[in-house]
Design brief:
alpha+beta, 6-stranded mixed sheet
Length: about 140
């Protein structure tokens, strides 16, 4: 199950990023089924006009560390999907680069690429979170 794709202009997404980063998500509670996955909560889902979907959360890990978590996917049909279909040999690299650029466009601080998830191949990035003041480009 996924949320319907509801694209918004970059300026609106930038303002909504504050809500996505407002409160940590307890990863263990999500995995146990007690809390709803961020990908199913509108405040964490940022749909871009070109078809890119970013899911953003601040995750509290089992060892009590807190980190920013970003994942990305592509809506079909969309301009991003069309571009990926035209260049299949470089699609994955283009997709990662596009998602990273969109993150920077939103004002996000640098994150580290973590991995592609097994199965669907969704890219994931993580980075430190020390509260809103640690990210000068995001106004909380």
């Amino acid at each position: 199950m996924t949320l319907p794709f509801e694209p918004q202009p970059l300026s609106v997404l930038r303002a909504r990023l504050v809500d996505a980063l407002a409160a940590p998500v307890d990863v263990l509670r999500v995995l146990a089924g007690y809390d709803v996955d961020p990908g199913l909560q509108r405040q964490h889902v940022l749909d871009c006009e070109d078809g890119l979907r970013l899911i953003v959360s601040v995750d509290r890990l089992p060892d009590d560390t807190v980190q920013v978590h970003l994942s990305a996917s592509i809506h079909y049909p969309s301009p991003v999907w069309d571009t990926m279909a035209r260049y299949p040999l470089r699609a994955r690299q283009r997709f990662v680069a596009q998602a990273e650029q969109r993150w920077r466009d939103l004002g996000g601080s640098p994150l580290t690429f973590a991995s592609f998830s097994p199965g669907k191949g969704v890219p994931h990035w993580v980075g430190p979170w020390e509260g809103p003041t640690s990210w000068p480009n995001i106004r909380c």
